Predict the 3D structure of the following.
Amino acid sequence: MIFDAHSDLPTYVFEERKRGERSVLDRNFDRFFGGLITARVVSIWTPIEKRGHATTYGLEALNLLLRDVEESLNYEIVKKSDEMKEVIKSGRVALWIGMEGGEPIGESLDLLEIFYRLGLRVLTLTWSLRNAIGDGVFERTGGGLTNFGVEVVGKAEELGILLDLSHINETGFWDALDVTAFPVIASHSNARALCDSQRNLTEEQIKAIAERGGVIGAVAIPSFVDKEKPTLEKYVEHIKYMVDLAGYRHVGLGFDFVYYLKGWSEKSVEGFENESKIPALLERLKENFSEKEVEAITFGNFERVFERIT
């Protein structure tokens, strides 16, 4: 079983359904899940051109995702860990709803609660740019969480929404840890020591997430794997490095495959271009870790954190 902590499939579903397609996920079951992914966080991301009406876009994208899942025989949206287990036991895929960047909630805790009622269980506080919550990693300034951002963290804890610290800048990262006692995740980030990208985590950040009982999901975006020649082997090196640093119970998978999105078709890790390559990844993991460790990295670690929060 594979627990993938980050996917942009809602963007694809939105675009396809706007073109008049139906049952988008069902028609692409083998392509997107490969019979191995049994749980996945599917995140609503607001494209840059949609940021001016992010709430409307976020609600529309979520509605189309829910509609698509309703037409499906293979998936179910889950809101609690017990539901995930039952869905997987039934032979279907458990989908958790995430939000990649809090743009759709604007400056409203009520909107955060509305999205929660619609199924939101994972909140990536920022995408790479600034929003009302704080600054992303690509902002020129070094601002951390705003006052509203601190309120969002508190409301997320109250509701039972898991905080995701991928994409937020370092100041905001540490601010978030200062104001929450809950486990946090970085759903799709690698080790900066192996690939010097602002989107990757420092040694101190990796250790801090582990100390809170959280998990880092190794990401398969090529520019976060290696600047010159991103390969499956180098992707596995990130996993090994983070396991050595934080322990095997604090590393998971957050693929962030984007080959199906416009403009990204040529951008992939050599030997790990899409879900069909997961068996190759599993072979590499088995070569480097025990059976117990592989089971934890591929599924059990994220399962544990979701059990604690939801």
Remarks:
- The chain has one domain: 2-309.
- The chain is about 45% helix and 15% strand.
- The beta strands are 2-7, 37-45, 75-77, 93-100, 120-124, 162-164, 185-186, 215-218, 251-253.
- The longest strand covers residues 37-45.
